[in-house]
Amino acid sequence: MKNKIVETIKGWSEKKPNNIFFDEGEDSLTYLELENMSNSLASYLEKNEESYKNIIVYGGQSSRMVISFLACTKSGHGYIPVDGHTPVDRIKMIYEESEASCVIAVDEWPLDEGNIINLSLFEEITSKGELPSFKNVVTENDVYYTIFTSGTTGKPKGVQITYSNLESFCNWMLEDFDLKTEQRFLCQAPFSFDLSVMDLYPSLLTGGTLIPMEKKMVESFPLLFGSIPKMNLNVWVSTPSLIEICLLNPDFTSEKLSSLENFQFCGEELPHNVAKKLIERFPNASVFNTYGPTEATVAITSVRITEDVLNNSDRLPLGKVKSDTELVILDDEGKRLSDGEVGEIIIVGPGVSIGYFNNPEKTEEAFFLFEGKPAYKTGDAGLIKNDLLYYKGRLDFQIKWHGYRIELGDIDHHLTMLNKVINACVVPKYNKNHKVQQLVSYIVYDEPNAFDEKEVTKLLKEELSKKVMDYMIPQRFIFVESLPLTANGKVDRKGLINEVNK
């Protein structure tokens, strides 16, 4: 079996060699350059790295990252994207957990260890014009990429996505999402966040152009609002949180942004009021709400949001499952439930991951065979009605926050490692749209005398920022003498969630 992704990108380099694949202004590269540079790097990796070993690709939103991904694929390596804004402690954990044989560092690599291909070596290698053998190209059940997500023990879990998983996702995207050839795609999600796959591969497979929106732009409203009109976007891929910010700008309309015709949302729940406002501003655009965990390859359901959908649903549906996949709703005893009954969402089909890298215990907990097919227990509650999936919250203590999936236990773990923190429990505060509005941390602090809570909060946030991603830092800290316990002696997180959401 061949790799259709590699073949299709090569086809674009031949049909449209001068098309820009990644818009970086004057430094933009073409499809022909993508093909040639990735071939040279793949040739180097073939000669110097043991095939099928993981390779970390480290950096931000850059054409060099995409070249590296394609080179890994051509040379028979699964790649692990790690964002340049990741705290050093987390980078170290991912590096150690992944057993990566090599690091392609587009940005400056912050560790003193690893077999590093830095940017100057990258440029030297990719200019040689060499060809790989193409004997080891990633295909079928080979691991295409591994994304490390938050884990309950403080250690990230590596979700392994195979070529077959990714092919299933890409086929669906090209069939069901009104995509055309040679469109301009927003590239905002970091490559270490699987939402990025929703713009990366559909763009490359249709001869499109990726338009980067860097982190600093999202963090500054004037910069964000000033930059969007210059991007000439056709396809918008993001979490609902970002579009919510953009809608604060009265100029974010179809009149001002006439080329923008396709919106795709994933990563968290799309609020009804946000979708309504977006459709009012862009009445002729296609707006898709999607759902899916990293473990099932980005997304597996979609629905086009229309006036009818808005009028018939207070809480928007997550959509209809893609044609090669089945959704099953199970009760606590593992029995299949009927339409309209709430239970755990189980995903069955070719998009389901082969499991977590080097973590058989967690793999066995979440992955299984259902009627002989690969299946994943999402931990999400939901129901199916008229073939549409509806979300009913988390069954456990994973949450979605700004599109990122977070294990609350991960943040607890890192908080308790800080000086004078005896115990900690992080809980979500929700808004009326059932969306996480704030992370609240209850802290048992080892200080016998009175202390300035504002100063300690500031100190803890600073220390925590060195350990975890910025979206994992709680906004509010509540200091208590002890944490409430359940009857079996565990911290009563549910009780605290109820307390903070009264």
Automatic annotation (TrEMBL):
Segments forming domain AMP-binding enzyme C-terminal: 415-490
Function as written in the Swiss-Prot or TrEMBL entry: Catalyzes the first step in the D-alanylation of lipoteichoic acid (LTA), the activation of D-alanine and its transfer onto the D-alanyl carrier protein (Dcp) DltC. In an ATP-dependent two-step reaction, forms a high energy D-alanyl-AMP intermediate, followed by transfer of the D-alanyl residue as a thiol ester to the phosphopantheinyl prosthetic group of the Dcp. D-alanylation of LTA plays an important role in modulating the properties of the cell wall in Gram-positive bacteria, influencing the net charge of the cell wall.
Domain spans labelled AMP-dependent synthetase/ligase: 12-357
Protein's UniProt name: D-alanine--D-alanyl carrier protein ligase
UniProt keyword annotations, A-Z: ATP-binding, Cytoplasm, Ligase, Nucleotide-binding
Binding site for ATP: 149-150, 289-294, 380, 391-394, 490
GO molecular function list: ATP binding; D-alanine [D-alanyl carrier protein] ligase activity
One family name in Pfam for this protein: AMP-binding
Biological process according to GO: lipoteichoic acid biosynthetic process
Origin superkingdom: Bacteria
EC nos: 6.2.1.54
Catalytic activity: holo-[D-alanyl-carrier protein] + D-alanine + ATP = D-alanyl-[D-alanyl-carrier protein] + AMP + diphosphate
Protein family: Belongs to the ATP-dependent AMP-binding enzyme family. DltA subfamily.
Broad class of the protein's primary localization: cytoplasm
